[in-house]
Amino acid sequence: MTEYSNEFMETEIGFDAAPARLTVDLSAIVSNWRTMRALSGTARTGAVVKADGYGLGIEDVGEALYEAGAADFFVAVPEEGATLRRFAPDARIFVLSGMWPGTEAMFFENGLVPVLASEEQLAFFFAAIADYGDYPCALQVDTGFNRLGLSHDEALRLAADDARPASFSPVLVLSHLACGDDAAAPMNREQLARFRDVANAFEGVEASLSASAGILLGADYHFELTRPGIALYGGDSAPGASKKLQPAATAEARIIQTRFAKKGENVSYGATQQLARDSRLAIVSAGYADGYLRAKSGTGVPLRDAVPAGGMGFIAGHRVPILGRITMDMTIFDITDLPESAVRAGDYVELFGPNIALDDAAAAAGTIGYELLTSLGLRYNRRYIQPD
Ligand SMILES: *Cc1c(COP(=O)(O)O)cnc(C)c1O
Q: How far is 297 from 219, CA to CA, in rounded Å?
């Protein structure tokens, strides 16, 4: 048997031959950040880059935004902060899940700011900085979401507590809106009122309430710092919100085979799609393991009742529907309506991008652009377009 030596083995396929490939347009991301900055009025504009920069790569996205002037970043967990630190040397990096035993060294060594959300986290933080010395933190206050945060009363008590350690110096107090995507929801005003109380109680401490959707609710919601995430990546935070933004990601997959099939034959697992006409099919190299969610299938996925039709791809100037169930590594598209010479094995089908809006691709799976982006997986060959 041949023995393969590590030294000379090819381990990467080029972008032009990749089974599935993703183009991330960093100049679009920077432009979207500037758009959100303009919409944030007098507030500073942060950047939320959790979940690997919404699936698009925290290193490249973080560096591009840092170079463009973003100085306040938000990540979910400490490891994300430590990764980002290498690309944003003097930015403030907030870790939304806070600090807990076993993570303090990662915070201190990388200069990460914990967002503390409970009495328990506060007690641990006080103990940790008793040894370490002065250290910044942020406070999250729950104003109605019932996810993370001190209660309104806990926050007000803390603000008035003279017994808290002298070294306790929060740099930011923040909360998160539940219904920011619905400008008419009464809950927005209610959360705003509760948050105002807390922000006033922490006099001299900066306040932050709004993610992408909240920024669009107007100046009352801006405070000193805003926290856009999905808008940077060109997705909808509220219905239609991304119309003013640039698409930042294009996902494509290669056709590995085309085939003809007769009227009455079936397609894919479960044989749930019966062809209504003689058809030409394109077998494409991306499936649910690439975040091309099975719920987007053309037919035959039990429980997918939220959306009537499956997803679409885009090739040779046309939208083409998915046929039958999406499988782990492959998806089948109906290319019958295209001239035979227009599509060949080796061509790429756009899964989403400039021609298939991210949010339309997500809606076909009964979900949101956020989930589609953060599900992309590891198999895409990635190309980054640098900002000029
Ligand atoms: C994820 C998140 C954001 C960003 O939200 P988008 O809707 O993506 O703009 C902001 N703040 C908090 C607390 C978050 O969890």
A: 42
